[in-house]
Write a structure and sequence with these properties.
By secondary structure, the protein is an all-alpha fold. About 85% of the residues lie in helices and about 0% in strands.
């Protein structure tokens, strides 16, 4: 590290490093397709390990809960931790089993029902639009909704025919789904090993940190890790609980109101509620689109209930759970969600916001103070150089040189009369000294 700082302090060393960085950047940009292909292949290899680490962290939230709260009366630490691990993995497997046994078949039946009734939905929409056209004609308004439905039918038929004939695209979709499912399965297996060897792994990392960091750096690094863990654990656990609660509340309302596609819409609403700011809007739009094909009044009732539910969730539940905001702008949240979803799927969407919050802490508490310190050091160095340039006994009194005035014809003409008058003027007569002073 000292050699790098010494090389950077030297002008030629800094120029050399900048030149190497420029050449590397040029080579990367010049071979961008090959670099992107290499990165994608590397990510395909690393993604099961990353997914396993993420799943292990999620399961570890349950392990910590059982170890510190549920089983805290057990005196033996090793037995308590092993029991917490076993119970946590069992709870996760039971939750997945209930999802695949109860929720997934209902979702498949709802999707099948939705696909089989597309023709009936189209007929219902045409009838509603015709009624709307007749109602508008009573007030002298011509909407011509029949042209809208004809165009929509043509576009839908073209899309369906393209999808049915394009088998390559269907195979690519199936291959992508299979790869994601395989990565999640491998990640589940790896997560068990991560959780089982967590303490040994952490002890090794702690030894490495103590060996490479000073005492002050180790203390600050440990404090940063604790704060990051608090942000992740609090956000992820409360977000999952909140999404499950919103989905269950939506399902209860739909069952009481007699609305169709209860499981499908409730799962959509609960999953989209994980996304901040615009997630509830997406869930409301998707749910209302499914319901409006059945009956527009179903969609109206669903939209009204969703607005009431999200108001309660936003102004009562979230402030109580999360406290103060993470302080991330909406644009940065959206970008982080897109990147996390593209890289790691639903798990990436879940961890993108707390990861961005941790990066914001690093930016505000590490990068900005470091840049300000560099600026103060540079200003102090400049002030020292200026002080060295001034002599110790103060600045020497050197008469300021008069600025040279350009000689022009007008200035020459103005100077000529003054010179001639000085030449014509008779010399002054001096008075003869008196005799008294001759002695």
């Amino acid at each position: 590290m000292g050699r790098i700082k010494k090389a950077l302090s030297n002008r030629w060393g800094a120029y050399t490093i900048a030149a190497i960085a420029g050449v590397v950047a040029y080579m990367i940009l010049n071979n961008l397709p090959a670099v992107s292909a290499w990165l994608s292949s590397a990510m395909s290899v690393i993604s099961p390990i990353i997914i396993g680490a993420i799943i292990a962290y999620l399961i570890d939230l349950l392990v910590v809960f059982f170890d510190t709260k549920a089983f805290k009366k057990i005196q033996q630490p090793k037995f308590r931790y092993a029991l917490s691990v076993v119970v946590s993995i069992t709870v996760v497997l039971l939750a997945l089993g209930l999802f695949f046994w109860l929720v997934l078949p209902e979702m498949i039946s709802s999707i099948t029902h939705f696909m089989n009734n597309t023709q009936n939905y189209a007929t219902n929409i045409e009838d509603k639009l015709k009624d709307l056209d007749k109602f508008a004609e009573n007030y002298g308004i011509h909407l011509n909704t029949t042209n809208w439905t004809a165009n929509l039918k043509e576009q839908a038929e073209v899309m369906i025919s393209d999808v049915s004939h394009n088998l390559n695209m269907a195979m690519d979709i199936l291959r992508g789904v299979w790869n994601v499912a395989l990565n999640i399965f491998i990640g589940l297996i790896l997560s068990v090993y991560f959780i089982a060897g967590k303490k040994r792994l952490f002890r090794g990392i702690d030894k490495l940190r103590r060996a490479t960091l000073t005492d002050d750096q180790y203390k600050r690094h440990t404090d940063f890790l604790k704060r990051s863990n608090a942000i992740f654990s609090k956000y992820i656990s409360f977000t999952i609980l909140e999404a499950i609660g919103v989905g269950i509340a939506n399902a209860i309302f739909m069952l009481i109101a007699g609305l169709p596609n209860v499981v499908l819409i409730s799962v959509i609403v609960g999953f989209t509620n994980i996304l901040p700011t615009f997630g509830p809007i997406v869930g409301c739009v998707m749910g209302s689109f499914v319901l409006v094909l059945e009956d527009p009044m179903y969609a109206v009732a669903f939209i009204i209930f969703t607005c009431i539910l999200q108001t309660i969730d936003g102004y009562v539940v979230k402030p109580h759970l999360f406290g103060d905001s993470l302080g991330i702008p909406a644009v940065i949240s959206l970008i982080s969600i897109i990147i996390g979803g593209k890289l790691f799927g639903p798990i990436g969407i879940l961890i993108s916001i707390p990861f961005t919050a941790v990066m914001a802490i690093l930016y505000h508490e590490s990068l900005i103070p470091w840049l300000e310190g560099r600026k103060k050091a540079r200003m102090a160095e400049e002030a020292k150089l200026k002080k060295k340039a001034v002599p110790a006994d103060g600045p020497s009194e050197i008469p300021e040189e008069k600025a040279e005035v350009p000689v022009t014809e007008d200035s020459v003409k103005e100077d000529i009369p003054a010179v001639s008058r000085a030449a014509k003027a008779p010399p002054k007569k001096t008075k003869p000294s008196s005799g008294k002073n001759r002695k």
